[in-house]
TrEMBL record:
SUPFAM superfamilies: Periplasmic binding protein-like II. Pfam families: NMT1_3. InterPro entries: TRAP_TAXI (IPR011852). It comes from the Archaea. This is TRAP transporter solute receptor, TAXI family.
Length: 349
């Protein structure tokens, strides 16, 4: 059944407006009004938030037709809920947490499920997650983590839920959980500097950039990677909710964090932007054009921004395409740049 074009796991459902009914200030066309894209972007300090701010800055310089508005939602699950509650008209979410929302698992189990979803836009972020410890700690491998004070990212983040489920499935989380210390990323550097935690999960964005909170750790605390042992490697390899990748080295850090001559095992997540069907196709198309043509200016503001000169770099995070269609504006852009995949579904306007 079709109701205004947005997609759910059961039906194609209605689109939404933005925050407090201001998501669409107008539509592109004769009256000259601009379109507001109010974009849920995890939380301040995250890589998603940094990317959105960089896009917002350049869009404000290059367009009189669209306003890209970065919204601190407090995490991916909150972005999904805010959209379903008509408080946002766009968001970025990791594919792990998006899958939970579609499948009504984790934080989206009934009665906390959502039924309204936006349409696919384009990918903007890939994360490689890994374990690190204080340089002077005696923690050498992940086998040393149980019973120690550790930081596993904020409790409200999709990345935290993904990590918990990954290790929970392997029977490892119960031993880790006893030592987990919860706080926001803004406290991470001081917590390590003061020795309140000895080890932590962090990530590099698009292989060689750090989120702002990890940059602060880099400047205030001596840290190093620790080796993932077989049980932890198998947990990542066997987990269907995330990717697994072995990299040559941990990227993005100014200090030497390699921690020794051992393989760097990571678990991975990818992130698309998604847009309400009520956002005009022309607006999404123009946004993608700006990203394609001015990505270097965005990189000046935030080096995590992808090289969007290559149209293929817009498509890598489009998953769940059987359940979530591609926004008409994005579909037009992909077709015009010869990267449309015939297995995708074009969304209704």
């Amino acid at each position: 059944m079709v109701e205004n074009g947005n997609q759910s796991r059961r039906d194609v459902l209605k689109g939404t407006a933005g925050i407090g009914m201001i998501g669409l200030a107008g539509c592109l066309g004769g009256d000259g009004d601009s379109v507001d894209m109010t974009v849920g972007s995890s939380s301040s300090g995250s890589s998603t938030y940094g990317n959105s701010q960089a896009i917002q800055r350049v869009v404000s310089q290059e367009s009189d037709s669209i306003n890209f508005i970065t919204q601190d939602a407090g995490g991916d699950p909150q972005s999904i809920r805010l959209f379903a509650d008509d408080e946002l008209n766009s968001y970025s979410a990791g594919n792990y947490i998006l899958n939970q929302a579609l499948e009504q698992t984790g934080p989206f189990e009934e009665p906390d499920d959502v039924s309204e979803f936006p349409q696919h836009g384009f990918g903007h972020l890939s994360l490689n997650l890994y374990w690190m410890a204080l340089e002077d700690s005696d923690i050498e491998t992940t086998d040393d983590l149980p019973g120690r004070d550790i930081y596993a990212l904020p409790a409200g983040w999709g990345l935290r839920a993904m990590t918990e489920e990954m290790y929970g499935n392997a029977g490892l989380w119960e031993d880790l959980e006893e030592g987990v210390v919860n706080f926001e990323t803004s406290e991470a550097a001081s917590a390590l500097e003061e020795g309140r935690v000895e080890a932590f999960v962090t990530y590099s964005s698009n292989y060689d950039q750090l989120p702002s909170w990890a940059v602060e750790i880099d400047s205030r605390a001596d840290v190093r990677a620790i080796e993932m042992t077989d049980d932890y490697i198998e947990a990542a390899e066997d987990f269907g909710g995330a990717g697994y990748e072995e990299v040559d080295e941990i990227g993005g850090w100014d200090q030497d964090v390699q921690g020794g001559d051992f393989p760097k095992h990571t678990w991975t997540e990818t992130y698309p932007y998604l847009f309400s069907s009520e956002i005009p196709a022309d607006a999404v198309y123009e946004l993608m054009d700006i990203c394609h043509e001015h990505y270097q200016s965005m990189q000046d503001a935030n080096p995590t921004i992808l090289d969007w000169d290559d149209p293929d770099n817009f498509t890598f995070a489009l998953t769940h395409t059987d359940e979530i269609p591609v926004h008409p504006g994005a579909a037009d852009w992909y077709e015009d740049h010869d990267v449309w995949d015939d297995s995708w579904t074009r969304g209704d306007e």
